Every structure is written in C-alpha cells, then in structure tokens.
Amino acid sequence: MSDTIKNISITYDAINENNTFSSGDFISGRLIVEVAKEAKIDSLLIKAKGKAEVLWSEHYGKVTVVYHQKEKFFKLEQYIIQEPKGKGQDYEMLLTGSGKTYSNIVTPGIHEYPFTFQIPQGNMPSSFKGVCGKIVYTLEAKLSRSMRIPSKTKTKFTFLSKEAMDTPQLMAPQFGTREEKIFISGKVSMNITTERMGYMQGEGLKVMAEIQNGSSRTIVPKYCLYQKQSFFAQGKRRVHTKKILKEAGEPIPSSTYQDITKVLNIPTTVSPTILNCTVLHVEYRLKVYLDISFAKDPEIKLPIIILPAAYPCGEVVKTMPPPYL
User: Fold this and answer.
1) Would the N or C end of the chain have less CB density within 10 A of its end CB?
2) Do residues 240 and 116 share a domain?
3) Looking at the structure, do residues 172 and 306 belong to the same domain, yes or no?
4) Which positions fall inside the Arrestin C-terminal-like domain (predicted)?
C-alpha cells in the first residue's frame, strides 16, 4: 500500500451458522478503504469470482512438462468509483443510499462501501483444496490511481453445491460379492451391502457383511473409506488417493459363518463429492477386505457419494437481498 492509501479490505456477512453460500444466495459486505490524505481515485472495483485450477509437473528424463488448466464458473463486477468511459463501454455502478454515485475524491479517514452480489444459479462445485488443484470462490477489490501501482485485496468464501439426496441413484443400495480360494486352506467368501450410495458429512455409513470363513485360518474383516482426487489438464490425468478412515472388525474363527453390521462415522470435515467440474474430481470408495495371514486379501469396493450436511435431502435455502440493493 502507498502512503496515501493505507489499507483496503473486504468483509462479508454470514447467512448461516456454517458461513457457507450456494447458488442463488446473496452475499453482502463492505469494501473498506483507509486513506491517510486526500486522494483522487480513478476506479474502485469489486468482483465476485468462482473458478477451478489445477497445476502439476511431470519429468520425462531431463525434460519437465508443466500441466495447467482452469475452469471459470462466474465473474461478477461492480464499480464503486469509475472515471467516465467512452461509448459502448457499459459497466454496473454502485450508488450511495441516496441514489448518487460515490465521489472520486476521498478524504482522510476510513470509508466503507456496501455491496451485494447474487451468486448465479447453476450446477457449480463446492469449494475444495487438493494436492494438485483447488476450487475457490473469492471477493476481490482493486483501487486504481493515476501513475500509481493499483492497490488490491482478496478474500475467500466457502461455496457448497446444492445436491439433493432424493435421486434414485443416490438412494439405491450398493452390493458386492467375492469368493477366494486360500491355497490348500479352503475358501472364504463375503457379501457386502450398504443401504444406499449417498451420505451426508457426519452421517453413519452402515455396512452389512455376510462372511463365510471356510478356511483353516482366522480372518479379520477390515473397512477403509478413501478419497480419490483426479486432476485433468491437456489430455493428462493425475490421481492421488487418501485414506479417510480405517477400522477393523472382530476376528472370525476358522470354519464359521457370521452376519456383521458395522457403522462407519463419516467425518464432518471431509469434502463433498465433486463430479461437476471438468478439471478436478473428488470421489470416494468404501473398501471392505478380509485380512488373511500369508495370503492375498480378498476385497470389495463400493462407490460412496458424500453430500454437504448443510443441505440434507434436497433442502433448499433461500436468502433475500438487503434493503439497499
């Protein structure tokens, strides 16, 4: 910042206890400019933006290739102060409470400029930060003066995609079966069922297992929920996996059959599933496997979709604009 413009910052008002926003919501706040001495401003602009970006590098011998891709969801702009432009250059101007334009001459002190944006309707992905990419929603401001370096500021806000749990695919039970011969020890088999595919953050994931231990060994059923992050750029894909939780059941003795029900508590902090972005996907799998000493562990993988807890069962949250909009 310069000696004249000491600081610019953005604050915004929460509309719920989680401080999250979704399509169609209004986000309101204030752009605060702290001025040390009188100055003339050429333009003062505030933006609301949503975008996804991925970046990684790969090495091929002595050659390093950088992969980079962006996807833009929206960009909204409002001018608080703007010098007159030529014909054909339209832009939205914010007005004072009395309906007048703001003066481009600012006096010493702290100046607050209220603003409101309505986030566009659309199927946009939730905020996310991954290994090689991110989905970010921001409020950005830029103050420009003649013959000076512009002053800029930025703040992030959390966006949650509005996904409903009432679609047949999300509510359909998931099922898998596996049988494995353990050398000369006999066979083991398992049938795994989940009540549905879609679950909310913080919800219990009930896993029903039918396990037949026809071998001469003791086996232990184990459960793992893992996340798969996929990044796409220039025809390439980069994949990273991450364990979210891992639990073990009780040992199953030789030559026995057991019906087991296990409830896995999905963490409230885990990111929602993201499939509605062209450059970045976030997916989840439930892996159930039988831990068998000195043998290959038979496993079953089932897809799991995690939804934001803020919008259960297709609930729609609406907000109204403030009076000055």
Assistant:
1) C
2) no
3) yes
4) 184-311
Residue range 159-170: mean pLDDT, rounded: 76
* Mean pLDDT, residues 253-278: 95
For 95-104, what is each residue's pLDDT tens digit?
777 778 889 9
The answer, yes or no, to whether residue 313 has pLDDT greater than 50, is no
Using alpha carbons, select from 107, 169, 149, 214 the residue that is nearest to residue 2. 149
Same domain flag for 205 and 127: no
Same domain, 36 and 143: yes
Claim to verify: residue 103 and residue 174 sit in the same structural domain:
no
Instruction: Name the domain count of the chain.
Output: 2
Residue found by looking up tokens 């401003």 in the block? 41
Size of the chain in residues: 325
Domain that holds residue 230: 168-312
Residues 155 and 196 in one domain: no
Confidence of residue 163 (pLDDT cuts 50, 70, 90): low
Q: Which residues contact 200 (CB under 8 A, 6 or more apart)?
A: 165, 266, 306, 307, 308, 309, 312
pLDDT at 92: 73
Confidence class for position 194, pLDDT limits 50, 70, 90: very high
Across-strand partners of 29? 12, 115
Give the CATH number of the domain where residue 187 resides.
2.60.40.640
DSSP assignment string, 9-48: EEEE--SSTT-EE-TT-EEEEEEEEEESS-EE-SEEEEEE
Does the pLDDT of residue 312 top 70, yes or no?
A: no
